[in-house]
Automatic annotation (TrEMBL):
Keywords per UniProt: FAD, Flavoprotein, Oxidoreductase
Record Gene3D superfamilies: 3.30.465.10, 3.30.70.2190, 3.30.70.2740, Uridine Diphospho-n-acetylenolpyruvylglucosamine Reductase, domain 2 (3.30.43.10), Vanillyl-alcohol Oxidase, Chain A, domain 4 (1.10.45.10)
Upper taxonomic lineage: Bacteria, Bacillati, Bacillota, Bacilli, Bacillales
Entry keyword Membrane: no
Name of the molecule in the record: FAD-binding protein
Taxonomic source organism: Staphylococcus ratti
């Protein structure tokens, strides 16, 4: 009877934007990670008031809530692990730009690429650029504090959020920050909520800061015979006086996957390649590339190819964009991770992953954002093979443990979700996890918002990808 009453209340509130059929509920039970969970209700609110009412109903009937954008999350952040109510924001896509104030106001369902295009139409720039920007939504970016290649120079999502409208766990409405670049009134709740993975509040509107779009870019590809040179080169470039706008690295295995997939002319024997972009005033870019070349020559790196035209520049960035589809080409499942390590430790992580590749007989490539140490070890495996699943679980666990050992972190941009929560105590310690849990308990005492994420359950210490 209680279930029917909640169903009736949601139907009265949302009409045809409430989905109860099995096919719809199953389709909202997964994201870009692993696991399949079936929610009881799927809702599509189109106003803050509707979100508030859904949250109040969830409290009244003791149902968990799972906010969701486009479902591209790679750490299980959108999975409805305890059933309950999925709040699908994908249809709520209102957005307005205020170019004179250099801000955008956006609802959570707006695609990140739409924000990019709107800013660029006014010669402005919204720097965070996750690889899935063509399909992912800003709400998901806010929840996970998404990054991307521009992170090395411009930072990540939280660096461009100056105000939020948020529905609390009790269904009340609060606003954090505002419309000004500088704001130090009270606690910085905006940055607390960005990256909280929907566990502290539901973001219904964000005010984003824009910057002037750089007038020009220039790109170079640097080829390395060994990983040590690649590692030294990253720090050498960043201390040369030049701040690249992008620094992307591909290991030997990623290079060869791209050659096989896209037929691009790349050195198969290279240990790694580094793609470096600088941006700014056109006259300054040639000088900056020369500074980089001279800095690298000092440590014996000489194979530097600088794009001379926009077409050549686009061709170089095709290399980076082709990695993910090249990995998927085999038809097996792609497991994407994003452990982050100090810059000087990048070669150590590359070596470790190469060892794991042979130890567990797995297909693993490494690529990522070299300028901030955010690497993406990516495994391609047959997930119908129980032995392969176990090997993947053990390899990923060793990757996370080694990243922490090197002074790194579990996640640079994908978030914790369900995939990494078992390892949280290893990085933060018991007291560190308890401190974060205290914040969750204070703001969401009934654990209504996105339960089952971030914090490990009692005794949960291992990654489990299978359901046996």
């Amino acid at each position: 009877m209680q279930h029917e009453t909640l169903e009736s209340a949601l139907k009265l509130l949302l009409g045809e934007r409430l989905f109860l059929d099995t096919a719809s509920r199953i389709s909202y039970g997964y994201d870009g990670s692993f696991g399949q969970y079936v929610p009881e209700f799927v809702t599509q609110p189109l106003s803050t008031k509707e979100v508030q009412e859904i949250v109040k109903l969830a409290n009244r009937f003791n149902e968990p809530i799972y906010p969701r954008g486009a479902g591209t999350n790679l750490s299980g952040g959108a999975l409805p692990v305890h059933g309950g109510i999925v709040i699908d924001f994908s249809q709520w896509d209102e957005v307005t730009i205020y170019p004179n104030d250099l801000i955008i106001k956006t609802r959570p369902g707006v695609k990140t690429s739409t924000i990019h295009a709107l800013a660029e139409a006014h010669q402005l720039m919204y720097p965070p650029d996750p690889s899935s920007s063509a399909v992912c939504t800003i709400g998901g970016n806010l929840a996970e504090n998404a990054g991307g290649p521009h992170g090395v120079k411009y930072g990540v999502t939280k660096d461009y959020v100056i105000g939020l409208e948020v529905v609390t766990a009790q269904g009340e409405l609060i606003r954090t920050g505002g419309q000004t670049i500088k704001n130090v009134t009270g606690y910085d709740l905006t940055k607390l909520l960005v990256g909280s993975e929907g566990t502290l509040g539901i973001i219904t509107e964000a005010t984003l800061r824009l910057i002037p779009k750089p007038k020009a870019t220039q790109t170079a590809m640097i080829v390395f015979k060994d990983l040590e040179s690649a590692g030294r080169s990253i720090s050498q470039i960043l201390t040369s006086g030049v701040r690249p706008s992008k620094m992307e690295i591909l290991d030997h295995h990623a290079i060869n996957k791209v050659v096989d997939y896209a037929g691009l002319d790349l050195p198969r024997a290279a240990a790694a390649i580094l793609l470096v972009e600088v941006d700014g005033e056109p006259d300054a870019l040639t000088k900056e590339m020369e500074t980089i070349r001279v800095a690298l020559e000092k440590i014996g790196v000489e194979h530097i190819e600088i794009a001379k035209t926009k077409e050549q520049e686009a061709e170089l960035w095709r290399v980076r964009k082709a990695v993910s589809p090249a990995v998927v080409e085999s038809g097996y499942t792609k497991i994407s991770e994003d452990a982050t390590v100090p810059l000087s430790k990048i070669p150590h992580m590359f070596k470790k992953i190469s060892e794991l590749k042979h130890k567990y007989q797995l297909s693993i490539v490494v690529f990522g954002h070299a300028g901030d140490g955010n690497l993406h070890p990516t495994i391609n495996a047959n997930m119908r093979d129980k032995t392969a699943i176990q090997n993947v679980e053990q390899a990923v666990e060793e990757i996370f443990n080694y990243a922490i050992e090197l002074g790194g972190t579990l996640s640079g941009e994908h978030g914790i979700g369900t995939m990494k929560k078992a390892f949280m105590t290893r990085e933060l310690g018991t007291e560190g996890v308890a401190f974060q849990k205290a914040i969750k308990q204070a703001l969401d005492p009934d654990n209504v918002l996105n339960p089952g994420k971030i914090f490990p359950a009692e005794g949960e210490t291992r990654l489990v990808l299978h359901n046996d």
